[in-house]
Amino acid sequence: MTAVHDHDDTNHEAEVIPLPVRATAERLGDDPANDEPIEGELVPDTTSRALARIKRGPVIPPALAGKAKRAAEVALPAGAQAVKFTGRHLYYVGGGAWDTLASGYGRWTGRDIDARIAAAQAAGDHGVAAQLSAQRNESRRLFLERIKVFGQLMMQAPKFIAATGLLTTAITLIVSIAAWATPGGMGFADVWSALINALVGGFDFVVWAASWAPWAGIALLVGLLIKGYNHRRRRQDVPAFLATPGTGSTEVEITPSVVVSALQRSGIPALRRAIDRMDEHQRAAMLSPIKLAGCGVEVDVTLPSSGDTTVTTEQVRAKRQAVAEGLGRHEHEVFITKAPAARTVRLWVADSGALDEPIGPSPLVNDGFDAADIFSGRAPWGVTLRGDAFLLKLWQCHLLITGLSNQGKTVALRSLLLWLLLDPSVEVHLADLKGVGDYNMLKPLVSTYIAGPTDEHVADATDMVEWAGEEMNRRITELEGNADRYPNGVTSELSRDPHSGFHPIVLVVDEAQVAYECTAKDEQGIPYGGAKANSRFFNAVRKIQNQGRAVNVTFWQGTQDPTNENLPIRARNGAHIRASLVVATESQSRMGMGDAAVDAGGAAPHELRQGLDKGVLVVKDASNTIETVRTHFIDGNAAEIIAERARQARHHIRTRVKETEQRDLLADVAEVLADDGKVKATDVVARLRTFAPNYRPYEQLNADKLKAQLDAEGAQVTKAGVLMVYAERVHQALAAREGGNDAG
């Protein structure tokens, strides 16, 4: 009798008789699309052995039922070993040949690009899907054109051959007549004999070359077979009965009985008692069908809750190590999260060693990836544990990435920036408060570039964020004052218009803890760092996180080893996207990911392995989806190549680099006033920005700030309807400062 487990969000039921569970989860191939549930099969004990061997391979003996079983290697006779060796390598040859043919057929028919289109559509990346569709259509058009040209050539071939023959005959006839008429030259027949000998020699060469054609074809075929053979051999892709001794023999099969046994022996007394009281079909009903999920399998477990026995999801998650050992895996190869249904946990169990295998290069390193779209596209950041591409939506999202030092935070953040800068509509301002050159290749691409860990660099970064706050306020004022022009707010169409003044601005501060921990103060005694309302940096970040998203001004920050001192709670809670590499404690996971994400399960960066899980991130995106992501590694050389593509896509980038020299405000004001006796303070500010366009203090200046600074210098600014700057007072203040005439 076969029990089909109908899987829904509330219950897993199976109408079965109380018989031993004999089902196993089998990997049927390498195709990730083959992600069908594997049903549990319950058979009578009298026939279970034979039927299980036919349908599922070796069965679990009754003595080991419900326990993890490791196969033991059995010494084989020399003859059997030779047969096994021969069969294994013949399988490599045949399988490799099939792989080669399938690959060639996929490229010839376009099925490979169809698969990429389907994957992009499934991931919601419709922009990439559209590009791939256009590429497929263009390839098919070119293919049809080549066939058409070839057909036309074949149609013209007889005419060409006939024309060539006639031309050759005419030339030979002319040459033979000339030779015959020339005394002492070749005879008429000699010329024709030479032509015939040349034709015969050419024909002999063609026959000789044709005799080697089969050998050339055989050599090509052997080369393809060797390539496929080596590919299969390196992967050890062979049936278990032909596998090399010692390979794959120690991996525990994830079967229903193994899962139930692991839970039973996990160290939760209430769960153990509940399972002890169950019969076999009740135990089977606890589990959803085991299904393939990337480089592992996934199963939902409904926890018992009846009478005096209640087991919570938190209790099971707390026993992760014990459950992993019961499943024959390392702790980092088992992830326990909450499932959508109540009282249900989801186990994802990796194939042994699969998480230590490389995931392949980033799509950004492909030569054809030369454009991005922040509005409709998603940044390729890595792959999930299930092997799916992880694509991150960045438009109008504040971002926080944190983790311990030297775990890959900067490389992960830089890969997002490289994708972002491939969209020419985005303006990026970057402050790297570590300053060791990790972002040097981006310097020509960003509108502000600050690199260094000193208090002066923190001051520059603070000015940068405050400037963005003023730009945010300008945009908000523009929207409020022209509601009829912007009935739908800042749309993607408005953002794409380079003349609208609402294009995306992204501020990036890496090693932001340096700014939060900075104790320096400005000229007015206001601190740059800290987590209080008077902190300039924190206050500017808080304002942008509160209102910037609505007008396309967003803030990204990366921090090390988060604490309440170096990552204030309001600054971290303002991020729509939160990502964390490995951290030391659960409290740090809560700081980086938020309490809700940790309590929901799945957000546990403190359970990653320091040093071994470099570049592995736990990510909560703007839609509150939580994933563990193995990010693509883009080294410095590859980053330079991608940055060069971005430079070619961005034709008008003005880099605002902080000028290190200190300018004289009084002297500059006197210069811009020229012969005018008095000028509006707002106009003076505009003239100063034109006079010194890259000077950051002037970019931050407004009429009120100008009045305060000129008043302090003795050049009083007074209001005559509006604030006015008087040239006479400015010159008097300059003279007084230089020891000349008194300013009064």
What does this structure look like?
It is a single chain. The protein has 744 residues and is of the alpha+beta class. It contains 24 helices and 22 strands. A ten-stranded mixed β-sheet has the order 11-10-19-18-17-12-16-15-13-14. It has a five-stranded antiparallel β-sheet with strand order 3-4-5-9-8. Strands 20-22-21 form a three-stranded antiparallel β-sheet. A hairpin with a 5-residue loop joins β18 (616-620) and β19. It is flat, with a radius of gyration of 37 Å.
Layout of SSEs?
Elements: E1 6-7, E2 12-13, E3 37-38, H1 48-56, H2 78-109, H3 111-122, H4 126-181, H5 188-235, H6 256-264, H7 269-277, H8 280-285, E4 290-293, E5 296-302, E6 305-306, E7 309-310, H9 313-318, H10 320-326, E8 334-338, E9 344-350, E10 379-384, E11 389-392, E12 399-403, H11 409-421, E13 427-432, E14 448-451, H12 455-481, H13 492-496, E15 505-510, H14 513-516, H15 536-547, E16 553-560, H16 569-573, E17 577-580, H17 586-593, H18 595-600, E18 616-620, E19 626-631, H19 636-649, H20 665-673, E20 678-680, H21 681-691, H22 696-699, H23 703-713, E21 718-720, E22 722-726, H24 727-737
Parallel strand pairs: 12-16, 12-17, 13-14, 13-15, 15-16
Antiparallel strand pairs: 1-2, 3-4, 4-5, 5-9, 6-7, 8-9, 10-11, 10-19, 17-18, 18-19, 20-22, 21-22
Helix pairs in contact: 2-5, 3-4, 4-5, 6-10, 11-19, 12-15, 20-21, 20-24, 21-23
